[in-house]
Specification:
CATH class of one domain: Alpha Beta
Number of strands: 29
Structural class: alpha+beta
Protein name: M23 family metallopeptidase
Number of helices: 9
Helix content: 10-25%
EC number: 3.4.24.-
Cofactor: Zn(2+)
Strand content: 25-35%
InterPro entries: Cell_wall_metabolism_enzyme (IPR050570), Dup_hybrid_motif (IPR011055), M23ase_b-sheet_dom (IPR016047)
Organism: Sphingomonas arantia
C-alpha cells in the first residue's frame, strides 16, 4: 500500500481510492451517527406520569430513587438547637399586652375593647361593693327553709328569725318543694359580715303570698292573700279501649285515676265488669287562683254509668278511717286476711298425726314456723274476745271480725293486747313462742266462720258498714253538691274538649 501527500492509494491488485486528508471512513461515520442518535433519544428527565410500565418509565424511576437515596445519604447531621424560654409576664404586663395586642376575637382577644393603664391610673385600696344584690333561691325536696336562706348569704341568726316569722303564717313543712324565693340582700358595713336581708318574697300557698321587708331597720312580715276558686273539676267520658288511658286523655291526674280504679275495684272487677260503652265520671279537687295558677288535688267522687246500673262512690271518714261509700250510705271493703307472722307454713289444715299426743286428729288451723319472739299481728280488723291461757293452745288470742268471721292465735310467748280491745289489721298482738302442746316455736293460726273452723288459706271476706241518722244526711248532702258540679257549667270530656254538663 502506498500513501501520497493528501491521499491514500491502495494496491495489491485492487482499485486505488484517494480520500481527502481528515475525512472519516464510511463505516466509522455510520457508527458515529448511530451513537449520536441514541444519545439524542436518551431522556435523563422522564415524566413518570406518562408511559407507565415502559422501559423509559422504569429507567426514570430508578434515576429518581437513586437521586433521593443520594440526598438522604449525604444529609448533614446537625444538633437540635433549643431556644431559650421567654420569662413569664406579670399580671400587669399581660393585661397591657392583651389590651394593645391585635389578635382575633375568636381566640379570646380584647382588641379595641379596653385600653392599657396609664400613669394617671391609681389602684384602689378597696373595691366598692354593690349596694344591693338580687338573687333567686329554690327550696329543694328534703331541704330546710333556714338552710336555703343561709346558702343565699343571709346570716344564721337572721335566717332563724325570718323562718320564725314565716311559720306564724304557714307551717314551714307545708311550703312545697320547688318554691322560688326572691331574695334581696343589702349593703354591709364590714366585708367580714354577712349582708343584711332587705326583702324576701315567695308563694307560700296557691292562695297566699308572703313577703319580708326591712322597715326602719326591722324586718316585718307582709301577707298578700290571693283570691281563689275551689270549684271541683268533673271529668266524664267513654271507657273505650281502656279506662285508665281514657281518663288520662280527658285530663284527670294520674294519682286521681289510680285512686278511682282502686275505688271501683272494691265493688267490681275492672277487667271483667267494665265495658267499652260504659262512661266514667270522676270529680277531683281543683283550686284556681286569680293569678292564673291551677292546682288539682285528690279524688272526691268515683262514678261509672253502665247499662245494668250506676256505680256512685264517695270517700267518707268514720271513726278516723276513710273508705268509699255508695250513694245509699253503705261502705264496703274487700280483701284477703293478712298473714299474721313472717315465716314458712310448716303444717296445713286437715287430718294429721299429732306430734305430741301421738294419734290422728283434725288440725283446725295452719302452723307458721318462725323464730322465737317474732311479732304476731292481727289478720284483719276486729275485737279481741279472749286473751290468755287456753289449754293445749298455750297463750292464745281470739279476735272476732265482721260477717261472723273469727281468728285464733296460739302457742304465743307473750300477749300484748287485752280482751275487749279493738285492733286494726296489721296491729301487734303478741310474739311467737312454744307454750302449750308444742314441739318448737311456731304460730298456730285458726280461722272460724259461724263458730266452725275453716281452712285459713281459702278465706276471702268482705267487711261492710252503714251510715245512719245525721251522718247519713250529711253524706247525702255532700254527694248532692258534687253531683251539681258540671250540671250548670262546662265539664271536660274524654276527648279533652269542653261541653255543657249533661
Amino acid at each position: 500500500m502506498y500513501r501520497t501527500s493528501d491521499s491514500e492509494q491502495d494496491s495489491g491488485g485492487g482499485t486505488a481510492v484517494l480520500r481527502p486528508r481528515g475525512a472519516v471512513p464510511p463505516r466509522a461515520a455510520e457508527f458515529g451517527r448511530r451513537v449520536e442518535e441514541k444519545v439524542a433519544r436518551l431522556e435523563l428527565v422522564v415524566d413518570l406520569g406518562a408511559r407507565i410500565g415502559s422501559r423509559e418509565w422504569w429507567r426514570g424511576l430508578a434515576t429518581c430513587t437513586a437521586l433521593c437515596a443520594s440526598a438522604i445519604a449525604f444529609w448533614p447531621h446537625l444538633p437540635l438547637l433549643t431556644p431559650a424560654a421567654p420569662a413569664a409576664m406579670s399580671t400587669a404586663e399581660w393585661q397591657e399586652v392583651r389590651a394593645i395586642g391585635v389578635a382575633p376575637l375568636a381566640l379570646g382577644a380584647d382588641t379595641g375593647r379596653r385600653l392599657a393603664a396609664t400613669a394617671a391610673v391609681r389602684p384602689l385600696l378597696d373595691t366598692p361593693e354593690r349596694p344591693t344584690i338580687d338573687l333567686t333561691a329554690t327550696l329543694g325536696r328534703g331541704d330546710g327553709f333556714v338552710r336555703v336562706l343561709e346558702r343565699s348569704g343571709v346570716a344564721a341568726g337572721e335566717a332563724e328569725a325570718v323562718a320564725a316569722m314565716v311559720a306564724q303564717a304557714v307551717p314551714l313543712a307545708e311550703i312545697a318543694p320547688g318554691t322560688r324565693l326572691d331574695v334581696t340582700l343589702g349593703q354591709r358595713a364590714d366585708r367580714g359580715q354577712a349582708r343584711p336581708l332587705e326583702a324576701l318574697a315567695f308563694r307560700a300557698r296557691i292562695d297566699l303570698k308572703l313577703g319580708v321587708t326591712r322597715v326602719d331597720g326591722r324586718l316585718r312580715l307582709v301577707r298578700t292573700p290571693i283570691a281563689i276558686d275551689a270549684t271541683p273539676l268533673r271529668i266524664r267520658g267513654r271507657v273505650g279501649s281502656g279506662l285508665y288511658m281514657a281518663a288520662r286523655a280527658a285530663g284527670a291526674p294520674a294519682k286521681a285515676v289510680e285512686a278511682y280504679l282502686r275505688a271501683l275495684g272494691s265493688r267490681l272487677s275492672i277487667g271483667r265488669d267494665v265495658h267499652p260503652n260504659d262512661r266514667f265520671d270522676i270529680i277531683v279537687e281543683r283550686t284556681r287562683a286569680a293569678t292564673g295558677e291551677v292546682q288539682l288535688g285528690k279524688l272526691l267522687y268515683a262514678g261509672l254509668d253502665q247499662a245494668r246500673g250506676r256505680v256512685q262512690l264517695l270517700e267518707w271518714t268514720i271513726d278516723g278511717r276513710r273508705q268509699w261509700y255508695a250513694a245509699s250510705g253503705v261502705g264496703e271493703r274487700r280483701g284477703l286476711m293478712r298473714q299474721p307472722v313472717i315465716g314458712r307454713i310448716s303444717s296445713g289444715f286437715g287430718w294429721r298425726r299429732h306430734p305430741v299426743l301421738g294419734f290422728s286428729r283434725l288440725h283446725k288451723g295452719m302452723d307458721f314456723a318462725a323464730p322465737y319472739g317474732s311479732p304476731i299481728v292481727a289478720a284483719a280488723d276486729g275485737v279481741v274476745r279472749f286473751a290468755g291461757w287456753h289449754g293445749g293452745h298455750g297463750k292464745y288470742v281470739s279476735i272476732q271480725h265482721g260477717g261472723g268471721l273469727g281468728t285464733g292465735y296460739g302457742h304465743m310467748s307473750r300477749i300484748v293486747v287485752p280482751a275487749g280491745a279493738n285492733v286494726a289489721q296489721g296491729q301487734l298482738i303478741g310474739y311467737v313462742g312454744s307454750t302449750g302442746l308444742s314441739t318448737g316455736p311456731h304460730l298456730h293460726y285458726e280461722v272460724y266462720r259461724g263458730g266452725a273452723a275453716i281452712n285459713p288459706a281459702t278465706v276471702s271476706f268482705v267487711t261492710t258498714s252503714q251510715l245512719a241518722g245525721a251522718e247519713l244526711a250529711r253524706f247525702r248532702s255532700v254527694l248532692a253538691g258534687l253531683m251539681a258540679v258540671g250540671e250548670a257549667g262546662p265539664v271536660r270530656t274524654a276527648a279533652g274538649d269542653l261541653r255543657p254538663g249533661a
